[in-house]
Amino acid sequence: MNNKQKVFLACLIGFFAFQTTQAQLKDIGTMISGSQQDAEKLFSAYLKPYSKAFGADLNGGWYNTAKTHKLGGFDLTLSVSAAMVPSADKTFNVSDLNLQGSPVITGNAAPTVAGDKVAGPLLSYQTTVGGTSYTYAKFNTPKGTGVGIIPAPMLQLGIGLIKETDVTIRYMPNLTVGDYGGLSMWGVGVKHSIKQWIPGIKYAPFFHLSFFGGYTQLKTNANINFAPDFYVTNLGATKGTLVKDYSNQQMDMNVNGFTANILASFDLPIITLYGGVGFSSTSTSLKLKGNYPMAGMEGTTLVVDDKYAKTDPISINMKSSDGSATKPRLNAGVKFKFAIITLHFDYTLANYSVVTAGLGISFR
Question: Are β-strands 181-193 and 165-177 bridged in parallel, bridged antiparallel, or unpaired?
């Protein structure tokens, strides 16, 4: 495994714990078999914790001081932020989703993607033909990954401009690992000294006060394998005409994070104490692309056939009510300086709290 693959795996551990990737993605595909509308609700509930956690990660790691660079000064920093999924978001209640297909639900709370590695409740979709009930879809909601701490590495460059203003750039080119999928990221942030505009504190030697705003976008995709044989093996379906390409299935997830904060720091020769207060906002879009097999009743026979298939069936935008929110955040940390080498640690208190550690070089 080369270095690019290692970085990719570190990022995606929060998306689908890769030790169980193949099985997890197949299980996720089965949720389409009930109905497209129900699948959207199940996908949102299942993936919501990782949507929030990735958003929290993207809004962390931006700064380790309120002090700005001089013109032409710069820092290059590698940090890792790890968001912690709260216990309440490790399960969800299928009955609360008001599924339109009215499936028979057998079992208790379903694990989300961050929950335990146990299968969720069994959902059975049934229809009546000639007074007899037939099952046309049946699946358990997917297992969780058992991963409730979601890390994301960030490599960023900060450059000093005029008027005590810094611009910070994040960038990661598209990285892929075999047939699993890919990941890319970019972001930009601006820090501006407020201290310079306040007469009472503008000459304070160690205290600094700034405003910071940053935006990051992460794009990731993963391949899915949901084949027509699912209906044959699990439901005794008969195969009809199957000439469509069902190997082109892919899940795309885009996470956008924005944060704005007031920063304060005490910058001493060896140690810096810093903190910030502000808000963060995240939004997520999730799309399933490709062809997905579906089955239909033909008389009293369940048939999986191309005419029932769905193409690009799922498109979800997670808003504040179903996966993303604008939340207050409070951050505090410490940075150690050894000549041009810096080492920092901080903690962000929020709905999804985040721990960050970073190593960098800085030329003020």
Answer: antiparallel
pLDDT in single tens digits along all 364 residues of the chain: 444 444 444 455 444 443 344 445 556 788 999 998 999 999 899 988 888 888 899 999 999 999 999 999 999 999 989 999 999 999 999 999 999 989 999 998 999 988 998 989 999 999 999 889 999 999 999 988 888 888 888 899 999 999 999 999 998 887 776 566 677 889 999 999 999 999 989 889 899 999 999 999 998 888 888 999 999 999 999 999 999 999 999 888 899 999 999 999 999 999 999 999 999 998 999 899 999 999 999 999 999 999 999 999 999 887 543 444 567 889 999 999 999 999 999 999 988 999 999 999 999 7
How many CA atoms are closer than 13 Å to the CA of 345, on its beta-carbon side? Answer: 1
**Residue of 99, 97, 145, 156 whose CA lies nearest to 119:** 145
With contact defined as beta carbons under 8 Å apart, do 293 and 317 qualify? no
- CA gap 229, 259 in Å, rounded: 46
Q: Could you list the residue range(s) of the whole structural domain that residue 96 is in?
A: 3-363
How many structural domains does the chain have? 1
CA distance 304 to 328: 49
The total of other beta-carbon atoms located within 10 Å of residue 327's CB is 18
Q: Which residues pair with 124 in a beta bridge?
A: 104, 138
